[in-house]
Amino acid sequence: MTTARKLLIAALAGAGALTTAHLIDPSTASAQSTTTGAIQGVLTDASTGEPLVGVTVTVTSPALQGAQSTISEGDGSYKLTNLPPGEYLITFYYLTVTVERGGVAVGVSKSTPVYQKINSDDATGETIKIEDSAPTIDPTSTTQGITIDKGYIKNIPVPGRTFEATLGAAAGSQGDGLGVSFSGSSSLENQYVVDGVNTTGLTFGTVGSPIINDFIEEIEVITGGYNAEFGRATGGIVNVVTKSGSNEFKGSVFGTYQPGQLTYNVERAPVNAASIDAQRDNAYNLDGGFEIGGPIIKDKVWFYVGFAPRFQRLNITRTIKRQTDCSVVQPNGQLSRCEAGNPVDPMDPEAGGRDGVPDVDPTTGFFITEDVDRSTRTAKTDVYNTLAKINFAVSPEHQGQIAFQGLPARIESPAIFGPESSGQKASQLTTDVSAKWTSKFNDNKTEVEAIIGWHRDYVRTEGFDPMLANDPLEVLVGGNLGVFAQADRFGESARTREFCADGGADDKYPQIDNCPMDAVSYVIGGPGSITDDEEERIAGRLNVTQRLRAAGSHEIKAGMDVERNTAQKARLYSGGGFVQNFLQNDTVIVNRWVQLAGLQGSPNADGADPRFDSVCNTPNPEGTSLGGSSTLQYTCDFLEGTYGSPGTQINGETLNWSAYLRDSWQIRPNFTLNLGLRYEEQRLRYAEGLANEVDPLTGVQLGKNAMDLRGMFAPRLGILYDWTKEGRSKIYANYGRYYESIPMQINDRSFGGEVNYQQQFNNAAATCARDLDGDGVPDPQTNPDTGGVPGVDCLGASGAAQEQLIGASGTLVAPGIKAQYLDEVIGGAEYEIVDDFKIGFSLQRRWMGRVIEDVSTDGATTYIIANPGEWDASEEANLLDRIERTDDPIEQQRLQNQLFLYRGIRQFDKPTRTYTALQFTATRRFSKKLYVQGSYTYQQTRGNYPGLISYDNGQVDPNISSQYDLIELLANRTGPLFQDKPHYIKLDGYYTFDFEKAGDLTVGVRLRALSGTPQNALAGHYLYGPGESFLLPRGQLGRTPFDHTLGVHLGYKKKLAGSTTLEVYTDLFNIYNRQATAGVDDVYAPRNKLNGTVQNANPVSGGTYEDLIWVKTINNQGGETQAPIGRNPNFRNTNARQAPGYVQLGVRLTF
Amino acid sequence: MVLQVRFGEKFIEQGSTTERSRRVFGFGSHPLAAVGEAKRVTSADALEDNFRVIMDELLVGNNLEEIRCRGPVRLDETVTPPVTVNYSRVPVGATPDDISRCSLPNDALPSSCPGDELATCICEIEGGCMRGTTLVEEGDPVGILDNDLDGAADQSRLIDGAVALRCATGSGSSTSFDVPLNRDLSYWNPSGTQDRPAQGGFDALGPAVVIVPNSVLPTNVDCGIEFSNEVVDKEGRRACVANYSRDPADADPDDPFDPKALQPDCEEGDFSPFRFTVEPLKFRPSSPLVEGAMDVSTTAPLILETNVPIDVATATTANVTLSPAATYAVETPQSADAIVITPTVGLTANTMYTLTVTAGVTDTFGQSAPASFVLRFTTAP
What we know:
The complex is a heterodimer. Chain A is mostly beta strands. Helices cover 6% and strands 46% of the residues of chain A. Chain A has nine helices and 57 strands. Chain A has a 22-stranded antiparallel barrel. In chain A, strands 24, 25, 28, 29, 30, 31, 36 and 37 form an eight-stranded mixed beta sheet that branches. Chain B is mainly β. Chain B has three domains: 1-64 and 159-279, no CATH class; 68-154, no CATH class; 283-379, Immunoglobulin-like (Sandwich), CATH 2.60.40.1220. In chain B, 3% of the residues lie in helices and 29% in strands. Chain B has helices at residues 96-101, 109-112; strands at 2-12, 19-27, 51-55, 65-68, 74-76, 83-85, 87-89, 129-131, 134-136, 156-158, 163-168, 176-179, 187-189, 208-211, 222-227, 276-277, 283-285, 293-296, 302-306, 320-323, 328-331, 338-343, 352-357, 373-379. In chain B, a hairpin with a 2-residue loop joins strand 8 and strand 9 (134-136). Chains A and B meet through strand 55 of A and helix 1, helix 2 and strand 13 of B.
């Protein structure tokens, strides 16, 4: 799918890597539920070692409403489930012996092993208190990942206020600009669950509900080996549990402040051959709020509420600069002094002077510039976090919960490379409502859990300036800021106007263009793409767990869930289109959204609604070889006007359902088999208006479902052995298959009838000229504000030199298409070498089994959503059979064309992505005031398919990216992928100094060190635009530098009256202000050369850097020329840096 | 090795009498090529402007092309008197960064491009090179032509002698000559694969050397290509043309370029497997003149169009004859692609004439038609 809409990736690898996570217990666990954990173990007689039957086990905790109890089984085993995360006191009652054990930590989806020996001779009537800690290893689960608790969030410098900022602590995780990715996948392949409800963003798969950390009880991050109850994710699972009320009133009032004055200045990443640099500095981040929970009816009903507004201000400094023509490079290689007024004296090069050529720094190759003016524009983000929960318990065995979360937000983003007014404002409201019920029966051996949830996200954008709301966005390519600045309406400063103007008596450098805009475009006009989108998920889930004994003990869990996802999207440009104005070439390209009725003269077109009053021309893909015309003409409707007009609102729907069965079979207490099978289905529907209709583009009768993915059987097999038999060790292995849940972007673009109409007007000044004086003769004019043709005039013009409909052939779905999945094996071991400290290693390997992507087998005319590289032979046989049985020659021809297209799918390379990682971890859970978590991951991520994000060109179109569209663009794509970071070291820890009545001081540190990102050499494609062609094999040009960063937390806490404490703290991030290169410009051959010529280039298959000297340009018609390609003056220059060092201040009053 | 060569051939479509031109695989084939699109060409279009020689691997481009400098950098001493040349070879091992540093503005060149072993456009003329009005000393950088200052060369061309389009007169003839090439329009492009690109057709397959003759091709000759000894792949092996052997036994004898018969290697410097024949010199009478025409004007000029420009010096009354005898002039237009026979004394009415063009009329390479051209017509009463 062409990149008609692209999201730019904001920051690259390291930024996301700066997130942190606290690991209480990196052990894997079989999830009891997604919001609670369990305690289990075996009770034996201390003297004889025989299992103790009939021991009463009771647990209490501030996190638990009431108490829970159970009785040990015939083999001495017991298990208490459905325990909210927190610290527990466990009491064993056996005969007259009472044993207490405190400080037992229970995590979300974790089963904490507590093995206890009881000496029945200790029948003194006193309670025996055990001081040592429960083991940190769960010997019954193979899931890989970490748990982040409140202690971690408070005491480790977490670079962000929402839970997403904490995820990076998981070994094998890294930031990718859109989120945090796990185990070699992309961040859009994760699933996010909050309080048991799927809150994953529907359109792209991003974090749907970013909850502020102060509302969070615990975060479980699963990076691999997940059991059958988890699915619809080929990345990781992030399971967030928010706080709940208890029998005591508890809460806090908090605030954080990150002032711009305590932030290092961002190091400039200047752009060569551009007259505007932009630098983003934090003005301030401020948030504050409260959260409180407590009983409404003690032991029966509890509440929890929280409110926390957050305000962020980002100052964007625009620096206007102009080129100089006053220096020369001296024979010693140094620049001379600047003498603007004089010509260069060849006899005295030290004197400098003008020579009519812009000065270039010989060491960097950058044009030498001088700053003309500086101004600041402010971007604003205001978010209001709101959370409310009611928990109620009919009895300890029967409990329920209702939760509400709201996140209204308002965002203002001024334009930077253009007048501020061309920016956008956005309003957003994210809402989550969930209801949960759990019941236990049969001596707690049977559990039933039911959850229903509703997630909704609404986003609406508008122009920065309401007066421009109906104006088209216009991108000025090439051109001169000196000209733009003369226009009052663009709002450039008087200094810019004066110092960038070319010519005139005051022009200091009269022989050169002072402020060219060659490398960066200038954007004017209205907001462009209009957003008025609403997405909604309604989900229901039912889980049943049964524990029984049969040749060991079994915990059998089964469940199913259903999701109905809907998305309502706007398809509209402000002013009816957006315009690219190539000022140097007098060429204008107009892009519109259109809706097609059908080919002119066809019944569909003739009988179409009167709104189809335009004609859209596109090249005939069959050409004239069969006697046809070179151009096809469609009756069409330009989508313009206001949102809600016919065709401007696209309603899509996807249905998901799944079922699973899992048995965690403890054959012996220290030997467990986890056997699970999950089944999923996903049905993606055609948009309203298309479903069950005849497609006007293909003539095909459409059904309800565009893509019906069934048969997604996902086995999960695991084996574990604990050689200590006390829960202090395990060796494990696991195999799992995981299926992807396709986000809904595809519903809008592929199944929503999206058609883009592109018209190119050459000699635009003449072609688009309007008849201004009414004499019937067009009056070409130059827009004095831009120095070129008024681009918007081309919106109503005829006489386009080239016209093309992109998507006009509709989108086919390959018959027999199968779901996308990957397979994974994990093997490893963990051992608790001393109390509270364990080490572990694991080997994890993931490889893609099958991918869904769109391909074009007829040169970008028709797109097929398929499994690249394969097409089912039985489906081919079916189609051949249909062809044979068809009498209608037109239908037969249509089917023959489809057969040709589908067979072409096989010529594409199969997508590959293989992730292999060796991980070493060392964890000391928090005890005796010290916590440490460290990991080293050595990994390789290789292949030709990065995932649902095209990191190379910034395209975010899951499953319909341009990666597989054209076969000539597949060359050179195999190699180390963006996620390939061979070395990653993570170290977190904190220690609390207890000064008793004087309070305590906690010092926390967070260290990250990681390898750089592979570098490429990219070029444009004449149909697809910039950055689509891999000129050289992926990753051949080395990597960005190895990076590291250190953060420190200092917190002082003082107890006030009662249980109230006051804490003040400061977090220092990137304390030595290392603003290393996070990303470089990978584009070798820019789409627009500095002289304005449009250029493209095809890959040099298997080539090396030297070959690029000889690569020749492909023109905009796809024809090869003898001209060498031009080079991007910013190639391999830094275009993204790690965030600067900054300080965050905080205060928290806890009661 | 050379895997495919694409160029134009003349053909007559079934059911038609009109000759047309189309581009085909004159050597090698492609899985997506239609039947008849790959063949041994016996009637190559003499007006062909573009031979695409597609390789199966990358060649060292530095031995195929040279890039344009801001002024003369060397002398061409193969001509008398020697002439200055504005193009420079690029040292093997130079990268785009080396090109970039030698593309900087003139004042920066001495320090950025000091004439080291990877520098390009270094003055090699004793006494210096004139860059505009500035004299650049021998050994100093003249600078790569880069008008938009983007760090890449603006122009390149084929190195003289790197590639030759070599033709021989007559089968097995030892008389061979090279067709002059337009080195500015000929080029080496390392981009491309064997995958047929969107809308680009087979003429975007690569990597490829594109050979553009300076003018038309000689007619009625057997031709092939040759690379100089310097043209090597990245392992240093000389270029050669792939071999389609009749073995293995299951190769299709009717398909000269059956992929199953493709040999994995070719002998270095062996270009013999690729040969083609250019169409002969042809004469086409212009309406109303056709074979057996009646009522032909006794005074109007008789026009014979040719498929290629002819050597105008050979268009004489000795080589273009009318029988019975007549008084006429033989002329050619400026384009030299026609012979115009204008009676200076009107022809005899109602008489059958025979117009003969002998082998004395040749193309610009001295090649004549395979046989005399004879046309009979009858004048009007």
